[in-house]
Amino acid sequence: MTKNIIVSGDSFTAHLVEPNIAWPQHLDPKHNIINCSEMASGNALISRNTIHKILTTKNIDAVIIGWSDPNRFELFFNEEENLDYARIKNHFKDRGGLTNQILTNKWHPGQSSSWLKSGGNYGGWDFESEQVNKLINNYFKKHHNKEFQYVQTIESILRVQWLCKLKNIKLLNFKAFGHDLFDVSYENAKHLIADIDRNTWWRPEPKILFKGLREWCVDKGYKDFPGSHPVTEAQKQFADEVISPWIDNG
To answer: CA-CA distances (angstroms) from residue 49 to 129, 135, 137, 156, 205?
Structure first.
């Protein structure tokens, strides 16, 4: 039976080219896959894009999300409050990093507002713009806080969980790689963690609830990770052995 499935996440879900073609591209073509993942996404952006698709797409059967490192962040820019927004947007017209998928349905900047993604280096990326590099580096050095990022991630996960439950949509979550989600404890996140539905999370082993896709690939014998991402063959095996059986039987 054909199913309408939203998939979301960071580059572990978004990769579309060799040698890292991601798992959504290996699912049964009979299904309608609505892919709202983005390269370099943080978890707030993943949640935001996912919720938008849930609220604007009819007859969704399932949502599958590979969550990223809690320490990734995005900065929001808009025309109303950032007088230089047009210049920033123009700088990114042929570059990645500034997007508003909700408004453009692509990894493109919005006409009057967008999100600037920190990516995986948390202030270490060169955006080829002194102004943008300064903004990102300043935020990371002066405002970035690991506990706040962690709380924001758990809140982002819960928003999707609660919405799927409200709309009776099947949900499968997993960690893209071995970051510290659920492996650390913060006092301001404890009450939130308590409401995480563990039945919505992929369990590669009974006693290891929050293991990442990358670590699963290592356990399967894969040693080559170009750009720190699983190769296409590993992604296909993950689709065949983990995702597809859940879609059919989960």
So the answer is: 26, 24, 25, 11, 29
Among 142, 160, 178, the domain boundary falls at 142
- 109, burial (CB in 10 Å: exposed 0-12, middle 13-18, buried 19+): buried
> Are residues 65 and 94 both part of a single domain?
no
Asked if pLDDT for residue 206 goes beyond 80, the answer is no
Q: CA nearest 108: which of 126, 95, 118?
A: 95
pLDDT above 80: residue 134: yes
What is the rounded radius of gyration, in angstroms, for the C-alpha atoms of the chain?
A: 18
Domain containing residue 40: 4-71+146-249
Q: Please determine, for residue 88, whether its predicted confidence score (pLDDT) is greater than 80.
A: yes
